[in-house]
Design brief:
Helix content: under 10%
Number of helices: 0
Radius of gyration: 13 Å
Largest sheet: 7 strands, mixed
Structural class: mainly beta
Oligomer: single chain
Length: about 120
């Protein structure tokens, strides 16, 4: 099971940008899904919503409707890293972001490996 660690969170004003990084302890298999999930304020961990996911074999990506055109998930296979580039942030993007691996698309309960989570706060 791959160990994941997020970094890059913090506070940003609405309209700003932030990039989250996720470091994997080992190389990710060539047919894995990598994903980012978000736990919004006031919601339980089980209510995490899928934000973006990428299939490493071919690079197919899927995004939640709420972030399409604003967020980009990229994968650096050589360095066992993947990233979530977030632009045009709004207040609804506030939450704890988790990276995950070895699951299916944007289905959180399908994922086997999770990072510890990192806070992103967007202010007006």
């Amino acid at each position: 099971q791959v160990h994941l660690v997020e970094s890059g969170g913090g506070s940003v004003q609405a309209g700003g940008s932030l990039t989250l990084s996720c470091a994997a302890s080992t190389a990710v298999a060539s047919d894995y899904w990598l994903a980012w999930f978000r736990q919004s304020p006031g919601k339980e961990r089980e209510e995490r919503e899928g934000v973006a996911a990428l299939f490493t074999d071919g690079g197919n990506t899927v995004y939640a409707d709420s972030v399409k055109g604003r967020f980009t998930l990229t994968h650096d296979n050589a360095n066992n890293m993947f990233y979530l580039v977030m632009t045009s942030l709004n207040l609804e993007d506030t939450g704890v972001y988790y990276c995950a691996a070895a699951g299916l698309g944007l289905i959180p309960r399908s994922y086997k490996s999770w990072g510890q989570g990192i806070q992103v706060t967007v202010s007006s």
